[in-house]
Amino acid sequence: MVLAARTLAPLEAVAGAARRVGVEALPIALDVTDAAAITTAVGEARTKLGAIDVLVNNAGVAESAPFARTDPELWDRHLRVNATGPYLLARAVLPAMLERRWGRVINIASLAGLHGAPYVAAYTASKHALVGLTRALAAEVAGKGVTVNAICPGFAATELTWASARNIAARTGRSFEEAVEAMARLNPGQRLVEPVEVARVAAKLVHDDTTNGEMLVLDGTQ
């Protein structure tokens, strides 16, 4: 297993936990918006661990702002991380998967990639782009031993939600807990999606030869 993120220290902790249960783990510092860094990281992964069979595009950024205050920098940042990053990584690993006639690309999208929402135009647009990329790639690889799917969670119990809650609390005077509860209520299931739920769906997709081009919704009702 290769773990990639901008900050190496948390990856080392996750890699250590993986090794304790017998999984060989390689942490790599990586900015998914840097095409050259992706080429280097993929090369290092292949050299140390062999062929890449599964790609999970889980890097993401989520910031809120009224559309009038959604400046070009915020817009570009969301598109680069949430859409261009998955494109660059898929482009780096998909050809070898097709050559071996086996592979899985699993994109972590969002309910926002299927529906509109106020104050998150950049995030919503970037996740719609990721959903479109998923469908296009799935159509291209159909019947070739490779599948491309997306998981679309609602608000999840992750640092992205905690950061949003802190932002809401700072702007509105609500407590952090009240902000988290308000976001949880926006999910159809009235609760946050747990990371393990996303992981279980991803693991199931790895062993699924038939599901391709699907947007798998996790909205707290499951």
Overview of the molecule:
This protein is an alpha/beta fold. The protein has one domain (53-218): 3-Layer(aba) Sandwich (Rossmann fold), CATH 3.40.50.720. Helices cover 52% and strands 14% of the residues. The chain is built from seven helices and six strands; from the N terminus they run E-H-E-H-E-H-E-H-E-H-H-H-E. It has helices spanning 8-20, 35-49, 72-100, 121-141, 159-172, 176-186, 195-206, and strands at 2-5, 26-29, 54-57, 103-108, 146-153, 215-218. The protein has a four-stranded parallel β-sheet, sandwiched between helices. Strand 1, helix 1 (8-20) and strand 2 form a beta-alpha-beta unit. The protein is globular and about 55 Å long. The protein starts with a strand and ends with a strand. The mean pLDDT is 96.
